[in-house]
Amino acid sequence: MVRTALDQPALELSSIKKSFGGVHALKDVSFKINKGEVVGLLGDNGAGKSTLVKCIAGIHAPDGGDIKVNGNNVIITSPEDARAVGIETVYQDLAKIPEFNIVQNLFLNREIKHPNPILGWLGWLDSKTMIKRAKKSLNRLNTRIPSYNEQIHNLSGGQRQAIAIARAVNWGADIVIMDEPTAALGVEQSAQVNDLIKVISSQGVAVLLISHNMQHVVETCDRAVVLYQGRSVADVAVADVTKEDLVGLITGATDAAA
Amino acid sequence: MSVQTLSLTQFKQIAFNRDAYIYYMFLGVLFFFAIILHDTAFLTVSNFMNIVKQTAPLTIMAVGLTFALAVGHIDLSIGSVVALSALVGALLLQYTGIPLAVAGALLVGITVGLINGFLIERLQVSSLLITLGTMGIITGIARQLTNLESVPIINQDFTYLFGAGKVFGLPILLIWTLVIGGLAYIVLNKLAAGRHLLAVGGSPAASRAMGIKVTRVRIYALLASSTAAALAGLLYAGRLHGARYTLGEADLLTVIAAVAIGGTSLFGGRACIIGAILGSWLMGMINNGLILSGFSTNEQMIARGIILIMAVAIGVKELKNG
Ligand SMILES: Nc1ncnc2c1ncn2[C@@H]1O[C@H](COP(=O)(O)OP(=O)(O)OP(=O)(O)O)[C@@H](O)[C@H]1O
Ligand SMILES: [Mg+2]
Question: Do the bridges between strand B151-152 and strand A64-69 make them parallel or antiparallel, or are there none, so unpaired?
Answer without folding.
Answer: unpaired
